Structure formats: C-alpha cells, structure tokens
Amino acid sequence: MKADDVLVISNASKVFTMRRRSLKRVSMTAVDDVSLTVRRAETVGLVGESGSGKSTLGRAILRLLDLDGGRILFEGREIQGLNERVFRPLRAKIQMVFQNPVTSFNPTMTIGQTLVDAMRLSRHRTLKQKEQRALALLDQMELDERFATLYPYEMSGGQLQRVALARALAPEPHFIFLDEPTAALDMSIRGQIINLLLDLQRQSSLSFIFVSHDLRVIRYIADRIYVMYLGQVVETGTKHAVFESPHHPYTRALLAATLIGQGGRDEVRRAEMLTGEVTQRAHDFAGCKLYGRCRYATERCAREPQVLRAVAQDHWARCWRAEELARSGWLVKGSAANEEPLSGFRQVAV
Amino acid sequence: MLETLREWGFFLGKRLAILLISLVLMSIITFSVTHFIGNPVYLLVGPRHTQQMLDNMIRDLGLDQPLWQQYLNYAGNLLQGDLGVSRYSYNPVMRDIRSRLPATLELSTFALLLGVLWAVPAGILAGSRPRSRFARIVDVIAQAGVSMPSFWLGLLLIYVFFAKLSWLPAPLGRIDRQYRTIAQVTGWYTIDTLWAGNWNAFVSSVKHLILPALTLAITTSPSTLRIARSKTEEIMQSDYIRSARAFGLSNSTVRRYAFKNMLAPVVTMIAMTYGYLLSGTVLVEIIFTWPGLGLYAVDAMNHSDYEPVMGVVLLSAGFYLSIYLLADIITALIDPRARVTK
Q1: Are residues A264 and A329 both part of a single domain?
Q2: Are B334 and A108 within 8 A, CB to CB?
Q3: In 10 A of CB A130, how many CB atoms?
Q4: What is the value of pTM for the model shown?
Q5: So what's the ipTM on this one?
C-alpha cells in the first residue's frame, strides 16, 4: 500500500445464492477475486456489461453488503467486517452517486431537506450552517437557490443528477463511487456533469470510481481502467494502454462496438465483436469465462481458467493469447474517429 | 406558504367536485336501472285486482309521469334526506337504513381494524426480510385468506368455535336476547353496552361480533398485506434508502422514511377495503344473521322493492366516495406528488 492509495481492494469475492423454483440452490459469483486500487485524485474507470459485478463492488465499498472474501482498505484501514457503529464516521468519506437520479431521492423530502440529511455525520456544523452549505453546493452545481424548496418530482433528470452530486459532496468525502451517473441523461447534460466532476476533482483532490458502459465517457474521464466480465477483471491498465493497445478479446470487442459507424473499416470491427449472450453456465465453467463467445478461443481456453497477468508495464490481461492478439495490431489505431472522440464535451459545457 | 394553500385549495376543490358529480351520476344510474327492470305494480296489487286498482296504484306511485319527472321528484326528495318509502313494508327507507346501518358499520369497522392491525405490521416485517421464514409463513396465510370464500370460512369458524368448542354463542344476531333492551346511543352494541356500564352485555356483544369480524378480516386483509409487503420491500431496496444508509442515517431514521413512503398506497388500499366491507358483507351477514344493510338490500331486491335498493346503493356510493376522499387527503399530506392537480 502506497501513501497516495485511497482505496485498495484485494481479492474481493462475493457469491449470491438463489433458490430457484425447483428448490435447487443456484450460486452466482458476482465478484470473483477482484483487486483494484484507487489513488488520490485519480479516476478509475470501471467497464463491463450488466451483471459483471460492478454495482456489487460499489455496494461492498459502501458497506451496504458484506463480501465473502478479500479485503477493502480505505485510507489504510480495513473496512470489511467493521460493525456499523465503528464504520459510520467513515461513511462521510465514502460516497456514491446512482445511475437513476429519479429513484435515488426520497420522493417525500425537499431537495433542501435531503441535502441537510446528507450532512448527518457532520456533527461540527449547526443546522443553520448545514442549510447554508446546502445552498452553496447547489450554487456550485449551477442550480438556483429555489431548488432547495422543490421536491424531486418537480425537477428534471439532469438537475436531479447535479443535486445527487451535490448530495454526495455534502459530507466532504474523499472518494465517490459513481455508478453510471450519466447513463440516464441526454448527451448535452452528460457533458456538463462530467466536466463538473473533473473540476471538483481538481479542486479537492477527490478520487472516483466511474462505472460506465460508455467507453467514450470513460476515455474522457478515467486515468486508469478496469474491464470486468462476469465478476472478473479481464484487463486493466492506464487509459492509454487499454485504449491504444487492448490485449483482451473482450476489451477489443467492446472498443470495436463503440467505433462502428464512426468511419473507417466497420467490417473489421464487426468481426471483432462477441457472439451470443452471457449464460448461467459460464459461472461455473472451468475454463475461460469468455469461452463460447470469443472468436479467438481454442481448446486450451475451455480447459484452463485464465489468470490476470502482466502483459506490459502497468498493463494486465486475463488471456493467454493476449500478446499474440495485441501484436496482430489494433484495427482502429490511427483512425480519425479514435483521435478525439469526445471533443464535443467541452463545447457543450456551460 | 401561499403557494401551498393554493395547491391545497385546488386539490380539495377538485376532489369535492368529483365527489358531488359522482353522487349525482350514481343516483341517475341506480334510478334508471331499477326503473327499467320492470313494473312493481303487479306485485303490489296482488293477483285479484281490477283495472281501476291498477290505475290508482300507478297514479299514486307517480309511475304515470315521464321518467325524467320521476327522477326529479326522487332527487328533490333525496336532497331533503328522504329516500322514499318501501313499497313492501311501507316503512320510510331512511328510518330502516338508520336502524340497520350501525350493525353494518360496527361489523365492517371491527373487521377492518382486525385486518389492518395484523396485515400492516406483518407486511412491513415480511417486506423488510423478504426471504425470511416469517415472510414465507405470512405469504401462506395471506394466500389462504384470499382463496377462502367468506361464507365457507364463516361456517368453518362457527363449526369450530360454536358447535365443537362452544366458546362462542350461536350465530344469531349481535347480542344475547336478554341484552337487546340496552339503551341505543350509537347503535354499536360494543359502545352502548359500555356506555350503560353493563359489562356482561359488552362481553356478549363482543362474542357475537368476533367471528363475523374475523371472517371478514381474514378474507379482506391480504390485499393490504400484499401492498404493505411489496412496497416495503421495494422501498427498502431503493436507491434513496441506500443513500440514506450511506450518509450514516441511523436504522430507525431509515425505517421511519421507508414507513412514511409506504403509507400512501397502504392507506388507499385500506380505504378500498373499508368501502368493500360496507357493501360486501352480505354473505357474512346471512350466515351470522347479522341485521345489517346487506341483508336489508337483498330482502328488498327479492321483493322488487326499488326504494331500499336505491337507498342502500346511494349510501354505499356516498361512503365509498367519502372514504376515498379521506384517503386522498391523507395521501396528499404524506406525498407531495399527490397534491399536484393537472
């Protein structure tokens, strides 16, 4: 653990057991041996399709659920297994923003009440000071003071998501888990929120985990990237490494999918994409979890579970053919669409 | 503040207007339906009548007037609190209803209370621990309650508690014969007996009330239970409860929030149940020979006696609508979204 590590997760795992109609117990590994580090003032991008364990990880970090194995160190302190009374003071330091701004607010409380509520742990502030801070936060989000008296249903999704950010900032956290904070918003609002996040990070050295399906957003905001598939990290590295030289077939497929229709050779990108869907069987399959959907799969992939291994400096992938694939060249390298895919964001920002 | 007052003014005004319009429509509908069904005159004059008797009867009852005129007469009387006269017993319908309403009110209110007292806490508990054994047991009970017909359950309870165990009196009316002379203040025996300070009479009235009330409580409470349960479950897993926890709000505060947000739909469901109970107790009234409105309406229907039927239907509609209004007001107090009128 280094001095500037804010959050260190090591070998986290979580298995959910469900009882099916047949009364047979079915277990599902939501998080499978995940290790992840977030440094101070850094944004970690977490990518993966639904069911890849991203949200479970987020809830574990916020201690809204317990892991089955592994450790979570927050600012050097083990938070797994802490009871609520001991952990509660730390809650102010760890915050979360949810994907759907509409459901993340109590419909019967005004925005002002919600913001004041979020400062429950700031015992050093009086109610008056909390109210003032709530207004100041709204102002920082470029929201008028009058929003404090409104109810959530009276606001738009974009406004609510900014309030959600204000709420997450209210207890002065060091780390915020952003669970697809822009997915429910339209394009122009998306840009605003993201720029707001970057400004905040610069001002107060905040650390983020930013979960998203949208690789273009990730590319814009993240410093380092973790790609997850069925609870496992399949590739991780700096943004540059992952985007410019993706080593894992899954990462390549994701990238190819986002670039279709952006000009250039779509047929090559289509070939790179996965086939089929995630099946329940993949969870207890012995070999590589991508087997069956991967165009590069061989007989060895079916037999042998894959491990995350270093493929370059600060770059890891969970595939024995990683180097071979990377050497074969990356089809979108140098294409015009890939140079500055998010150039639009700055322009729409207010 | 002014904004809020205006909002409330709009809200209440609109609801009251809807209530009045519904009542007028209801009176038109019941009036037309009962008058289209058939002419009761032949039943009234008996088999050995002359044309003269028939014509007189028709004129006396005003049935020779056009239908709209008949309705206006009826509505005019209605406004003066006159529901007409039963053509069978020649009793004023208002008086009949007034003497029978307390029996129905007492039974439905106790049934509702019994149901709510178990269904809401059980629903909340089951909803907070949806996978627990308790939740599963509650599900089974609710499922059983919903699938049992009330007349069957009533008979079963009578069989067990009266015929087999003899713990409770025979299902004949509201109180033992010797206490029937007790002074009528509210018409609710449970209250009047206490008012008179007659403990034995009170016990007797409770013993008579408990089985029909239980029957209705068991068969009508599952809907409230389901709503309470599913809403609690949904809210406890909602993002805003999650964030409330993440902000370090205590468990009791989180539970208070969840309870408040669960309340609105539950109140609506309770109101619906109450409305149903006031008009839907007929079968249970028959089984327990409970002298309530349901029995009265059924008797009247069997005799093609319009006025009591219309009276009971209108009264039930009025009750339904008032209870809904009350539920709407409570909902609006809890949930700001419900106040918005568009």
Answers
A1: yes
A2: yes
A3: 19
A4: 0.76
A5: 0.73
